[in-house]
Write a structure and sequence with these properties.
- By secondary structure, the protein is mainly α.
- It has a domain of 56 residues.
- It contains two helices and no strands.
- α1 packs antiparallel against α2.
- The radius of gyration is 18 Å and the shape is rod-shaped.
- The protein starts with 6 loop residues before the first helix and ends in a 6-residue tail after the last helix.
Length: 83
């Protein structure tokens, strides 16, 4: 039986993906705060590029988290436990 056919395995994979994505988003926020503080202490012209990269990565991670949670909700609402 494959992971796609087993609802429990699919649910576990989605929960893991959601947790990892949320963790990545939190790390991006923390690095953004750290670089902001570092920029105030020792300004660097590359800081806006770093902030942009962190914002894009954090936004992508939040999108993956939201999509995974939506898929989990749909999986739980399915009458047979599958898609």
């Amino acid at each position: 039986m494959t992971a796609a056919a087993d609802p429990a395995a699919r649910r576990a994979a989605l929960e893991k993906r959601a947790a990892l994505a949320l963790g990545a988003a939190v790390v991006c926020v923390l690095f953004g705060i750290e670089t902001s503080v570092a920029h105030h202490i020792a300004p660097n012209p590359a800081s806006p590029l770093v902030w942009t990269g962190l914002a894009l990565a954090g936004s992508a991670a939040l999108a993956v988290w939201a999509w995974s949670r939506l898929q989990l909700r749909r999986l739980r609402q399915a009458p047979d436990g599958g898609p």
